[in-house]
Amino acid sequence: MTEVRHEPIAPTRTQRLASGAEIDAHRHDEHQIVYAGRGVLSVTTSTGTWVAPATRAIWVPAGTVHAHQAHGDLELHLVGLPARQNPLRLDAPTVLSVSPLLRELLIAYTHTENDDSPERTRLRAVLLDQLRASVQQPLHLPTPTAPLLRTVCDILRSDPADNRTLAELGRRVGASDRTLSRLFRNDLGMTFPQWRTQLRLHHALVLLAHNTPVTKVANQCGWSSTSAFIDVFRRAFGHTPGVYSR
Questions:
Q1: Could you tell me the pTM of the whole model?
Q2: Is the model's pLDDT at 222 over the cut of 90?
Q3: Which domain holds residue 207?
Q4: Which of 25, 27, 22 is nearest to 10 (CA)?
Q5: Percentage above 70 pLDDT, the chain
Q6: Does residue 132 share a domain with residue 112?
Q7: Residue where a domain stops, chosen among 125, 140, 155
């Protein structure tokens, strides 16, 4: 992300993106809520990637340089908030749960005329109330800074189904599993199994957005069985991966 576009005002609107389409690196002087009513959205910064299906939204703080990518045909709902108005007091991108009510509020707010009418003001107030009640979700895939760790993570990114242990990966890159385990905790703030699970969940969302059968997704993401994949997916997202095929 070398060239960064500066957009002082974060737009409030609905935008449709074809599968694979990207919005290049840019930043706003305002906060932004980014919600995919259809498809799966990924937001990438220099520190990592956040992926959100239709049951999640992504909070992007003012000034954050970020890029978007669509997985599946995407219906994107964007809500801008003044930098002085930070209802969640978050200074880093964060994935938030989206209740059925919040979903309808986001869709309605981004479809109404952008004005200061009393009706829109009330709609915005309820939206902010629901946003404050949203549960933060640990669906962040951090990007390593340590060169050795970056090599290991790149190996797994190229094949999320790679089931090698940390010791086996360590022999591949010339480091002990103890060294790599320490790097995962210190550089990424999570254990190796936690990072690999996040990687696989992110990859699973992308595959599901492209209508890949659930059994094939489980296999391509490295789960030992389809039932094991469904169980992990349900615990992470609150529903089974089968909803994407309906």
A1: 0.82
A2: yes
A3: 144-245
A4: 27
A5: 98
A6: yes
A7: 140
